[in-house]
Structure formats: structure tokens, C-alpha cells
Automatic annotation (TrEMBL):
Cross-referenced CDD domains: LuxR_C_like
SMART domains registered for this protein in UniProt: HTH_LUXR
PROSITE patterns: HTH_LUXR_2
Residue stretches making up the HTH luxR-type domain: 185-250
Alphabetically ordered keywords of this record: DNA-binding, Transcription, Transcription regulation
Organism field: Pseudomonas quebecensis
Record's protein name: LuxR family transcriptional regulator
Length: 254
């Protein structure tokens, strides 16, 4: 096992671009019998209502050409049961959309997942392996290898490669994560200004708007404007909710 890990790390050397890391990962995955590869990363996996957030990074290898648009623009990511399952576990797992086969997916799939299920059946990509990676401070990444072919034989082979595929996943994440800049490590869909962040940070410490104004040497009107702008961007009803949401989205981290 150590020899295999060394071999994986030799291919997935730090410092290379994410595209090159994925290309090398796909070479390794194909040696294990996988036909396609999906890697996703998000600093915040769910919104405060529990809806999956479209990932900041979605890298694909040998998937159908419309995959990225469907998952990122058409809402397939939010109703992908494999993603929901990956987020709910820390262990790698083999899955299948074949209702006759007993995999963890069988327990969670329901009619709301039909668009994803139908699409994968049409593409003959109904079996695979997924490895979830729960990162410090709430970030999340996963690597999924997809296989074509008859379900039962493909699943049997997938189970045999589960350990090696898990090693590949962690080697990829270790090499790829340093490539993510500060913007990728915080929620990308809401942009707070420096002053808005400062005001929310002081509000998180319990200061009133007047006290924040004194702390920042700004007028009360200016501070109130910054707080109101931040609340609007966050869709918050009040300052407390704004602080909670900004914290949830990791927008107040240095």
C-alpha cells in the first residue's frame, strides 16, 4: 500500500496546475478501470437552508459534453443523490442507480432525483465510486469515478478498487488544495467590501452601530450604510442574521 501511495504522489506532485493534476489522476483512474472522473470542491457545501451550493471547482474527465452545464447551471448538482450521500458520510462508497442492486444509494434515491438518474442511465454511467473529503473549517471535496458496463460485474470490480481509488483521491486533494487561492476558499457568490466585512466583524463582537463607528473613526451614517449593504447582499433580515450568514459562508475569515 505504501508503495502504491508513493507512486500516486509521484504523479500528483505539488506545484503543477489543477488541469495537469486531473490529467494525471485520470491516467491512474483508468488503470483501475474507471471510464470518467468528476472532482468537485466547495468551501461551503450547503446554504443555511440545507440546499447544496454549486461547487467553486468542478473538474471533469471523459464525461459527456453537457455535464458541466447540467450540474452547474441547470441544477443537477443540487439533486444529485451521490453528492448528498457523499456529504453525509466520511467513508468512500460504491454506488449504483440500478434499483435491483443493494448499494448505499438505494436508501436515499427518490423521485426528485429522476432527472439525474435518467441522464446517467441514458449515458450508461450508472455505477461508480465516490470518495468524500471533509476539510477543516467546513470545506468539502469529492472525487467520483464512473464506470460503464453491466451493473453487477462493474460493481464487483469497483469494490476491488475502492482502497486504491481512495488513495488517489487524497493524493489529488493534497496536491490540488494549495493551488486554490483565497477567493476559492470562501463563498464565491457573495462579495463583501472591506468596510462591510469590518462592520460585520465588529457586530459579531457585540458592538452597536454607534460603537462600530467610533472603532472605525467613521460616521454613524456611513457604518449604518455598510451594515445595510451587507444585509442586502446576504439576504438577511437583520444584523444578527447577517453575521450568522456571513460566518456560515466564511466571509469574515482573514
Amino acid at each position: 500500500m505504501l508503495a502504491k501511495l508513493t507512486a500516486f504522489n509521484d504523479r500528483l506532485m505539488p506545484g503543477r496546475s489543477l488541469e495537469e493534476q486531473m490529467d494525471n489522476t485520470f491516467v491512474l483512474a483508468r488503470q483501475l478501470g474507471f471510464d470518467a472522473l468528476v472532482y468537485d470542491y466547495t468551501p461551503v457545501p450547503m446554504d443555511p437552508n440545507g440546499t447544496l451550493i454549486t461547487p467553486s471547482v468542478l473538474e471533469l474527465r471523459n464525461t459527456p459534453s453537457d455535464w458541466h452545464a447540467l450540474w452547474c447551471s441547470e441544477g443537477f448538482y443540487q439533486i444529485d443523490p451521490v453528492q448528498h450521500l457523499a456529504l453525509a458520510t466520511v467513508s468512500p462508497f460504491v454506488w449504483s442507480y440500478d434499483v435491483k442492486v443493494d448499494t448505499p444509494l438505494k436508501k436515499v434515491i427518490d423521485p426528485c432525483h429522476a432527472p439525474v438518474s435518467s441522464y446517467l442511465h441514458d449515458q450508461q454511467l450508472t455505477c461508480g465510486v465516490s470518495v468524500p473529503i471533509h476539510l477543516p473549517r467546513g470545506g468539502f471535496a469529492s472525487l467520483t469515478g464512473l464506470r460503464t458496463g453491466k451493473s453487477r460485474s462493474v460493481l464487483r470490480d469497483a469494490h476491488h478498487t475502492l482502497a486504491d481509488f481512495s488513495l488517489i483521491t487524497h493524493a489529488l486533494q493534497e496536491a490540488a488544495y494549495p493551488l486554490f487561492g483565497k477567493e476559492l476558499r470562501s463563498y464565491p457568490h457573495i462579495r463583501l467590501t472591506k468596510r462591510e466585512r469590518e462592520c460585520l466583524k465588529w457586530a459579531a463582537e457585540g458592538l452597536t452601530a454607534a460603537e462600530i463607528a467610533t472603532q472605525l473613526s467613521r460616521s454613524l451614517a456611513v457604518v449604518t450604510l455598510h451594515l445595510a449593504s451587507a444585509m442586502h447582499k446576504l439576504g438577511a433580515k437583520n444584523r444578527v442574521q447577517a453575521v450568522v450568514r456571513a460566518t456560515h459562508y466564511r466571509l469574515l475569515e482573514d
